[in-house]
Amino acid sequence: MPAHCCDHETPKVDAILNLRRYRRILWIALIVNAAMFLVEIGAGVQAGSLSLLADAVDFAGDALNYAVSLAVLASALAWRARAAMLKAVSMMGFGLYVLGAAVWSVWHGGVPQAMTMGAVALLALVTNVAVAWMLYAFREGDANMRSVWLCSRNDAIGNVAVFMAALGVFGTGSAWPDLAVASLMAALALHGGWTVLRQARGELGEDSAKEDHHGHVH
C-alpha cells in the first residue's frame, strides 16, 4: 500500500519541482532580456541599424512575455491560454511594426555601422542561446510554455541573421542586408505568433468543452 501511494505522489512532487525550476528560469530570462533591450536600443540608435532596433523591440516584448508567464504560471489552463493569446498578438504586432519600418527605410534610411551591429549581435546570440537552452525542456508544454520557447528560439535565429546582415553591410556598403534581415525577423514573429495563437485557441476550446461536460453531468 505505501508503495502504491508513492506511485501517485511522485508525479505530483516532480510537477512541483518542475514548476519551481521553470519559474526560476523565467526570472533569469526576464532580467537578461530587459538588460539586452537597453543594450540593443542604444546600439541600434548609435549604429543606425533597423535589425538591431527590431531585435531590441523583440527583447522588450520577450521581457514582457516572461513577466506575463510568471503572473499566470499557477493559473488554470484557460487563463494561461488567454495570456498566450496576448503574447501571440504582441509577437504579430512586432512583426508588422518591423515590416512597416523596413519599407520606410528603403527611401529614408542610411547605411548602418557594421562593426557595432556584429559585436552586439554576437552578445545577443550568446544570451539567447543560453536562455533557449534553459527553456528547451519545457518546449512541449501548454501554449504559454510553447510561446516562451518559441520567443527564445526565434531570438537566437534572429541574432544569427543580424550578424550575417552586419557582414553583408560591411561587404557591400549598402543598407539592404540590414533591411532584409529586419524583414526576416518580422516574418518569424508573425509565424510564431500565429502558431501560438492557434494552439491557445485550441486549448480554450478544450477547456470550454470540459466545463460544458461537467455542467451537463451535474
Please, could you describe this protein's structure?
This protein has 218 residues and is mostly helical. The chain has six helices and no strands. It has one domain: Alpha-lytic protease prodomain-like (Up-down Bundle). It is 89% helix and 0% strand. Helix 2 runs antiparallel to helix 3, helix 3 runs antiparallel to helix 6 and helix 4 packs antiparallel against helix 5. The two termini are 33 Å apart.
Features of this protein?
218 residues, mainly alpha, Alpha-lytic protease prodomain-like, 6 helices, globular, disordered N terminus, zinc
Chain-wise SSE layout:
Layout: H1 2-47, H2 50-72, H3 77-108, H4 114-135, H5 143-172, H6 176-217
Q: State the oligomer.
A: single chain
Strand content: under 5%
User: Which percent bin holds the helix content?
Assistant: over 70%
Tell me the name of the CATH class. Mainly Alpha
Count of separate structural domains? 1
The average pLDDT value, as a whole number, equals: 77
Task: Give the N-terminus to C-terminus distance in angstroms.
Answer: 33 Å
What general outline do the C-alpha atoms trace?
globular
Pfam family, one: Cation_efflux
GO molecular function: zinc ion transmembrane transporter activity
Protein name: Cation transporter
Subcellular location: Membrane
Quickly describe the structure:
The protein is mainly alpha-helical and 218 residues long. Helices cover 89% and strands 0% of the residues.
